[in-house]
Amino acid sequence: MTDDEPTETLADIQPTEPLADLLPPAAGLAPGVMAANTAETTEVAADAQVPATGAASEASAGPRPRTRWAGIVWGIALAALASAGIWLASGAGRLDDLSTWVGDLSPAAAVGYGVLAVGALLLITGLVGLLRRAQRALSDRASASVD
Hints:
By secondary structure, the protein is mainly alpha-helical. The protein is 66% helix and 0% strand.
């Protein structure tokens, strides 16, 4: 690089139009219009009215985030399944006993165990649905009492 070539700094680089749409607009400016410099943005932000501390805490509190019951219930179920697998693999003759037991299963018993496994999955899914419904009912009841 020679001394004759101009050097660009980050302040000289203006965002392209698609990038300007991704950035949040400065306070007091129309959407899609960016502030020319930081001082103008700071002045506009300083002129904005700030609500009292109590009102700001109530407004920013908003609704509490929901508990993701599906993740909790499925996590417990899969952790239990993983624990059973670790227990099964850690024993000296447990895998041999399991392979002998699976080999001796009749086709009707294998189908029965398969149906039992599908039923367990449906039970977990139903439990998650009930928990979600109860959570929504509590949320609706709480929002109705606030209004």
